[in-house]
Amino acid sequence: MSRLSGPLHNPATDAGWEDPPPRKGFFTDTSVCIGCKACEVACKEWNDVPEDGLNLLGSSYDNTGALSASTWRHVAFIEQPAKPAANTVSLGMPTTQRPGDTMDASTLTDFRWLMSSDVCKHCTHAACLDVCPTGSLFRTEFGTVVVQDDICNGCGYCVPACPFGVIDRRAGDKNTKNVGIAQKCTLCYDRIGVGETPACAKACPTESIQFGDVDELRERAAARLATLQDQGVSTARLYGESPDDGVGGSGAMFLLLDEPEVYGLPPDPVVTTRDLPDMWKKAALAALGLLAGAAAAFLGGGG
Amino acid sequence: MSEQQAEFRAEKRTDVPEQSTTGVLDEKLQPGAAVESGERTGRRGAGRGGRRGRRRRDEHQMVPDATFTSYYGRPVVKASPWEADIPAYLFLGGLAGGSSLLGAGAQLTGRPVLRKVGRIGALSAITVSFAALVHDLGRPSRFVNMLRVAKPTSPMSVGTWILTMYGPLAGAAGAAELVAPFVDLAPKRLRFSLRLLVKAASPAGLGAALVGPAVASYTGVLLADTATPTWHAARKHLPFVFVGSAAAASGGLGMLLSPPSEAGPARRLALGGAVLELAVEHHMEGGMGITAEPLHTGKPGMLMRASKALTAIGAAGSLLAGRSRLAAAVSGTALLAGSACTRFGIFHAGQASARDPKYTVVPQRERIERGEAAGA
Amino acid sequence: MGASFGRGGATSFLQDLANSDCIVIQGSNMAECHPVGFQWVMEAKKRGAKVIHIDPRFTRTSAVADQHVPLRAGSDIAFLGGIINYILANEKFFREYVVAYTNASTILREDFADVDDLDGVFSGYDPKTATYNSETWAYEGVEDIPAPGDRTPRSDDGSDGGESHESQGERGAGHELGGHGVKLAHSRVRRDDTLQDPLCVFQVLKRHYARYTPEMVQQVCGVDPADFLAVCEAVTENSGRERTTAWVYSVGWTHHTVGVQYIRGSAIIQLLLGNIGRPGGGIMALRGHASIQGSTDIPTLFNLLPGYLPMPKVGEHDTLSGYVDTIRSPEQKGFWSEAESYIVSLLKSYWGEAATADNDFAFDYLPRLTGDHGTYQTVMDMLEDKVEGYFLLGQNPAVGSAHGKMQRLGMAHLKWLVVRDLNMIESATFWKDSPEIETGELRTEDIDTEVFFFPAASHAEKDGTFTQTQRLLQWHHKAVEPPGDCRSELNFFFHLGRKIRERLAGSTEQRDRPLLDLTWDYPVNELGEPSAEAVLREINGQHLTGEKAGQPLTSYTEMKADGSTAGGCWIYTGVYADGVNQAARRKPGQEQEWTALEWGWAWPANRRTLYNRAAADPEGKPWSERKAYVWWDEDQQKWTGHDVADFVADKAPSYRPEAGTPGAKGLAGDDPFIMQADGKAWLYAPEGLLDGPLPTHYEPAESPIRNPMYNQQASPVRQVYPRLDNLQNPSPPEPHADVFPYLFTTYRLTEHHTAGGMSRWLPYLSELQPEFFCEVSPALARERGLTHLGWATIVTARTAIEARVLVTERVVPLRIDGREFHQIGLPYHWGVGSSALVSGDSANDLFGVTLDPNVHIQESKVASCDIRVGRRPTGPGLLSFVEGYRRRAGITVETGNKQRTPESTPVATETQEV
Ligand SMILES: Nc1nc2c(c(=O)[nH]1)N[C@H]1C(S)=C(S)[C@@H](COP(=O)(O)OP(=O)(O)OC[C@H]3O[C@@H](n4cnc5c(=O)[nH]c(N)nc54)[C@H](O)[C@@H]3O)O[C@H]1N2
Ligand SMILES: Nc1nc2c(c(=O)[nH]1)N[C@H]1C(S)=C(S)[C@@H](COP(=O)(O)OP(=O)(O)OC[C@H]3O[C@@H](n4cnc5c(=O)[nH]c(N)nc54)[C@H](O)[C@@H]3O)O[C@H]1N2
Ligand code: SF4
Ligand code: SF4
Ligand code: SF4
Ligand code: SF4
Ligand code: SF4
Ligand SMILES: [Mo]
């Protein structure tokens, strides 16, 4: 049985691949993202993902909302002042000053519009894969995590298991492609298999999405972080690159300009199966307890 | 933030998250709120970015003033796509497991009616629960794919295999009880095999009793092994709550359908189960922090309150049930209902906790602030 | 651009932006509208360049810029003027460059009077005709200037209201190439290289912009002085010998009644700072549609022939020689002196054998212009039933053109309408589902227009070229056969011509000769598709006689006026040199110099940066090693460098012509602007523009704000159309301007394409921006009770439309005269129809028709309006609702259509005129 948590150099090897190719992944540098959504469209075009609803969500320019069975790349848009005023501790007092009141040219330069393209993290320890009862989800030779459409029976277990809320079961009428089964980013398994770049990275005009060997991407990410910090961008931080994090590091890492939750990412994701052995122990104990309890109920004399 | 604002926010969150929060910082008033002065403060609260937020811990407060940041109030993790099938499956699975124990105990201690009740109860419960399980699949026709692999990392896979062991045993035992009266009436050709079945009943019943407890307890892991905040936070206790609930339910069934003379063990099992469930639950909720909130609020809150009341009544009733058939029936039913409420309550609390980013973000933030982050 | 440098269009190319030390993006939302080209801005940023975005809204471009400066739509001249003032007042200009390469030192006539003397107009203004006589603007000692009217080709926006902005550059170019530069060898111009003479251009400039102080900039643009000065410092610190700054604009600048002057403003700055013709410098005009540059080179403009040859006019151009004479004057400098060879070669390529020296090479076959046939004029003619039929190819005016209602009502007057498009666009379905059907202004049963819809093949389904922003021709190969009945334009027109000629075959009518004599012999494949390469070959041109007969020309210098050569568009000659499709070259960037000269083919002569002679100092040495680009190689006695020199390859920097030498030879070795009659770039345009020699601030045609500079409110020469169906909102000093207290601007979103024909039918794009919305600040939302995601109604004198509301801090109230001023943002991609996946009210229905006099562009970037909460009335109710507003604002046909304010012009002006 493969490791459930902690650092792991190549999950492909762990999954039993004989000397696999280098682990592949993404480094998404949100500091150069221009929110053009070319990645979203390219992904849908290449993977023939159905339209995901024509609704105006009012969340800035984001009308996609979140990753889903029919959205494998999602660009988040966040409007915020860059330098929060000093007195922003929440004391529950509705502040009297309202935006717009002070919003004139001189304060506007403080305004930030963050954009970030989210995707499946292809976790080193992938909860979705761990809990999949059919083996439909599997670890590819590239260390990525992919659903086999022809095997998934739509049990839906991977959905609540993912600590990033990525994978979902596709809803729709019976003619909808792959309806009823789990869908998510495949890291373009078909493309990278033949040495191609994933569609989203290929389409990105600013190299915000960088595809490559995870080891090399980690270095690039660190370098980029250093540059930005030298330029005084103190809010820059890396996300998902550390092999010590709760999922053993992800195949898709990010450079963010604010806390993860601002982008809808969990601040401290943990692969749920990390605690599974302990859970099994508890379950066994409980089962035995029930057995014993029942025995007692019968032996415990009386009518 | 005032209590009632906090309340207000609590409502806001659960309905249409899209409107309730923006992924921006404290003083940023998200669009729309700008002109809805009535709602502004409430909306603001919803929008509050939290890492600089002071967190007030107030025992008596329904909604602790945990301010936090999210992306337009949208969920961070996804709620399971499961519907009523699954909590029903949890309840019936537990009922089946417990009933098999009663059946076996009755078989060994010579309580024919209780044995019948246990075995047939187990058979019907497991049949329906299995149906529910299959029905909930996105592609029911592909259920068999469950049997492609045996994965200890997948509680559902483990569960499937437990069921495949338990099902036939409980089935045989239950079937035997059903056919027994008719064996002699049956046509010659069948008689032999039917006799065989009846003979097999005893070992099958005992076997089912050995596997039954696993059927009841693994479902705790099934829920806990997810990123659903309330379920995962309850991981240390869920199996115990579920076996307790299973014992109470099956005991209740025994009390309901068998004569007080034979129902003694059922009453004791029910009482023990009920006490275990209530005790562990209380302890569990104490340790869950903010993720316990969904167990108290909204629809799941009602279910949980009902489950506790019913279970308590049932437990109390079981003490009198020895003498009065009525009391037995009433408390038996209460226990069954209570157990069902427990499963539905916990299921829906989990779903709610997944839909509200608060329950994902706040505990993880607290972990980080305590320097206990998985990453740290 | 033409007026400043001699050619229209971008002076540099996108990749070159990576060499900039500072990039100012103003009047363009580059990241959203040119995302692929924007990679070079990001590259420059990575290399440490400062990126500044000056835009009314905080856009996705602002999001990655170092500084965003919000300003009031329509106020850019004040902002640019402020920078010019800062440069001059603080001596920040690049003296050597300015003295050597611009007309700064040229002395002007002393009777030239500036706007400050005449309360907002330049000398020569005639209030009766609302036009200028530019005589007094000229260089000292320059005589015989014909009136502007006849000297300026009436370059109306031929293609459409939208592309009109595109014609701007080319218009300038057509105009300059058209040889209307000052008819005088610059050796005879009087100069003062000390720049001290009070009458020299430099001093005039200094006086003109003295009033553009940071305080004035704040009052006009609503820009905080600190922000403004930060921009001034950034651009001046990043210009000079060692550093260069680039200016990027697009239609945020051109869709104005004074759009041409916006661009002139940036040209003046870039010349003063020495940023033209140098790497990382220049003015990057971003064009729109993939081949918009192409559609003006080989024009869809009614008033131009290929290569910017003017379309002949009745009376004016009755003979070939007469035509040629009006294009170039014999003593004229520059390359246009060969005009005759270009037009004759064109005629030969049209009519081959039938074009002979005896019949003026069939010059009479060319139609003659009888007047203005621009889009808006044509639509008004439709309303008068003067137009029977209309071809719409790749255009959706029902949504894309200003005053949508006028467009739709106009089309309803046609006998027939041909629409060729990828989708069933609103312009093809207006007769059954336009807003006018809903209001009852149109009734389907009353419309006699017969609409023919032809499904078109998309660019992926046919061969051909794109000529993009930087004049680069790139060949695209057909990827798939067009589905079903879809056909290419080439296919449609070839067979249309073939059929017509078959019909006319045997006709003896003289009027049918032009059609019957056409060279119409393109090879077709088995599917009947004509060969696009054969067409490109014809455009390139070939030798007709001599031993080279049949061989392609290699350069337009080979063209002859004796009929021995043919060529479809002289500036494209060379694209098929040596019988090779040069436009199809695709040598990867990493395998060649960064200028990538072997990717595609750029006109003229595959040059990437224009006027690049200016990248070297007068002696021919690079201004600095860091910015070396093109320089004089003493040993080889020729110009070399990273690009094809935009100069006579072997003309030494020291060369000085005989006084008055005509043609290219007339240019000195230090005259980098070879298309200019005097070889210099024009800080001050002595003529060529109809609205003044210098950019000066005027309010938009509709504006709630009073012009603080002088009584003259808006451009005194803007083209107005006072008609009942084209009412204007009042602007001060007129009363009731406060009925429309806000400004709105229109723009694009990355997720959609223009009028939506290529995006609103696609689910993957429509889901990304499903609904028409307006963007307002939280402050305006409070003021008008608008709620996020609620509905708002936006009203002008034309009509009212409804939109979902996005309340966002990306739109900020400006402080003007101490009071809060609000602007509203409206993307213009939606239209009312029944066939698209997503539809909505069209922003263009809000606009009226008021045009820039030079290029006839509609002012579709700014107008005044009112906004109120809730949805608009439907049906006839909408009409009475709008009528109510008109009454409250006391709107009549005159409202907003008086060009000169105040009417009573100072006597001074009258006497100024001769
Ligand atoms: N995704 C996408 N790309 C496109 C197109 C498309 O439809 N969709 N269209 C193509 C075409 S045809 C064209 S012409 C180009 C147009 O390219 P752009 O000109 O960049 O596009 P716009 O959004 O029309 O206008 C640019 C900006 O001008 C600002 N603006 C408006 N008025 C003023 C003003 O008075 N001063 C200043 N400084 N700014 C002002 C607007 O706020 C807007 O942000 O884009 C091309 N590229
Ligand atoms: N208010 C306001 N109005 C504007 C502007 C603005 O900024 N604000 N911008 C103006 C500008 S810059 C422009 S360019 C115009 C654009 O306005 P239009 O040109 O009127 O609108 P488009 O949608 O670009 O029309 C192009 C059509 O060509 C079709 N098409 C695409 N490829 C082909 C082909 O190969 N063959 C044929 N036959 N058809 C094809 C597309 O489906 C589409 O319907 O809008 C102008 N109008
Ligand atoms: S992010 Fe979620 S879906 Fe993707 S690999 Fe990790 S656990 Fe699986
Ligand atoms: S839904 Fe499909 S992929 Fe997900 S766990 Fe079940 S079988 Fe595996
Ligand atoms: S890698 Fe492929 S599947 Fe994954 S998001 Fe990018 S394009 Fe879509
Ligand atoms: S394509 Fe690149 S730049 Fe565009 S949204 Fe996606 S990540 Fe951002
Ligand atoms: S759409 Fe075409 S022209 Fe526009 S940016 Fe993309 S590639 Fe360039
Ligand atoms: Mo355009």
From TrEMBL, chain A:
Keywords: 4Fe-4S, Iron, Iron-sulfur, Metal-binding, Repeat. It comes from Jatrophihabitans lederbergiae. It holds the Pfam family Fer4_4. It is found in: Cell envelope. CDD domains: FDH-O_like. The lineage of its organism: Bacteria, Bacillati, Actinomycetota, Actinomycetes, Jatrophihabitantales. Residues 24-52, 111-142, 143-172 form the 4Fe-4S ferredoxin-type domain. Its main location: other. This is 4Fe-4S dicluster domain-containing protein. Residues 1-23 are annotated as: Disordered. InterPro entries: 4Fe4S_Fe-S-bd, 4Fe4S_Fe_S_CS, FDH_Electron_Transfer_Unit, Formate_DH_Fe-S_su. It comes from the Bacteria.
From TrEMBL, chain B:
It is a multi-pass membrane protein. Keywords: Cell membrane, Membrane, Transmembrane, Transmembrane helix. Residues 43-55 have a biased composition (Basic residues). InterPro entries: Electron_transfer_protein, NrfD-like. The chain crosses the membrane at residues 86-108, 120-138, 158-184, 196-218, 238-258. Residues 1-16 have a biased composition (Basic and acidic residues). It is found in: Cell membrane. Its main location: membrane. Residues 1-62 are annotated as: Disordered. Belongs to the NrfD family. This is NrfD/PsrC family molybdoenzyme membrane anchor subunit. The gene is nrfD.
